[in-house]
Amino acid sequence: MDQFPGLAQYESWFQKPRFHVFNRAHTLLIIYGNTSSYFRQYDGTLAAANIMLSAYAMGIGTCWIGFSHYTLDTPEFKRKHNVPENYDLVCPMSIGYMKSTPNPPTRKEPLIFYRD
Ligand SMILES: Cc1cc2nc3c(=O)[nH]c(=O)nc-3n(C[C@H](O)[C@H](O)[C@H](O)COP(=O)(O)O)c2cc1C
Questions:
Q1: pLDDT tens figures, 81-99
Q2: What is the pTM (predicted TM-score) of this model?
Q3: Residue ranges per domain, the chain?
Q4: Cβ distance 52 to 95 under 8 Å?
């Protein structure tokens, strides 16, 4: 928590005995982007969103696992898993068959900053 103060808001999640960083999914898909591409974060995120929608259409659940960002982007992890140094992390995504289909969250009101 001292090292990642931004995660403090999730402290109660981490304290649950059943908490599992990858939601007990059996598969983790990790998208990296080539640092020579200025838009790699956007490109990779669009790819991630398309994968999420396609997976859902096949009854497969996905979740972006931001909690694992730091670990998966370290030189040690990348070396061990053959990720070239000039690629950086975009999206770790847990993937698995869902035990149940979650209810959609309540829709939030859009914030409209300008209307002509
Ligand atoms: C960049 C990003 C990182 C996320 N990281 C995690 C995570 O580490 N663990 C998790 O369970 N969900 C993670 N999520 C999923 C969010 O928990 C989920 O999208 C959120 O509950 C939706 O909240 P909202 O309905 O308030 O918008 C992440 C989502 C995004 C976009």
A1: 999 999 999 999 999 999 8
A2: 0.91
A3: 18-97
A4: no
